[in-house]
Amino acid sequence: MRPFTKLRELFLTHKELALKLEVLEKKYAQHDEKIQAIFEAIKQLLQPPQSRRKKNNRL
After folding, report:
1. What are the phi and psi torsion angles at 58 (to 5°)?
2. Where are the domains of the chain?
3. pTM score, two decimals?
4. CA dist 12 to 4, 19, 22, 39, 57, Å?
5. pLDDT for position 57
6. Mean pLDDT in each 10-residue stretch from start to end of the chain (59 residues)?
């Protein structure tokens, strides 16, 4: 009888954890997109600026 009780407790615990994990995933799903946008902005800031001067082709 004890193994079945332990097994039931184990399944209930995992079910609760799975539900909590699902709630967290839904709550923070949009954060991934925002974090990705932040990294893209940082990458752009780290790139050297493009030269705005035009080459003078006059001889």
Report:
1. -75, 140
2. 2-44
3. 0.41
4. 12, 11, 15, 39, 77
5. 62
6. 74 78 80 84 82 63
